[in-house]
Amino acid sequence: MASSLTCAGIVWAFLSFLCAAASCVGFFMPYWLLGSQLEKSVSFGTFRRCSYPVRDESLQMTVMVEQCGRYASFQAIPSAEWRICTVVTGLGCGLLLLVALTALMGCCVSELISRTVGRVAGGIQFLGGKCACGEGMGM
């Protein structure tokens, strides 16, 4: 298999993939904030949560659901700031993954990544990194 990347480009491709994978795993895991509520351990991320309180109308009290799951809808995410964080971080992870997979394909396909494509991919990767770190869009 011929490659359109130099040795530095191949290292960049694999490191990009590892960083994109770590960003995506971090985004999907519900362990951003840890704490306790109603004497139970709770955790949540931008769109997933573990051990969360719900109102049980038959018992007329709040009970803890001791399982992990995503919010029922986008509007169920607790605040507008968390919704914005979900969109921006998800966009950043998507951009990082797109560039990483393109770079990995460049390791196997000759003439896929030229100097110009590499520079554009680097710019997209920079933008994706800023979004995934919460620094995108003036944050």
From TrEMBL:
Cited Pfam families: L_HMGIC_fpl
Domain of life: Eukaryota
Transmembrane segments annotated in the record for this chain: 87-109
Compartment(s) where it occurs, according to its Swiss-Prot or TrEMBL record: Membrane
InterPro entries to which the protein is assigned, alphabetical: LHFPL
Membrane topology: Multi-pass membrane protein
Keyword presence, Transcription regulation: no
Signal keyword on record: yes
The entry's keywords: Membrane, Signal, Transmembrane, Transmembrane helix
PANTHER family: LHFPL TETRASPAN SUBFAMILY MEMBER 6 PROTEIN, LIPOMA HMGIC FUSION PARTNER-LIKE PROTEIN
Name of the protein in question: LHPL6 protein
Organism: Tichodroma muraria
Lineage, top ranks: Eukaryota, Metazoa, Chordata, Craniata, Vertebrata
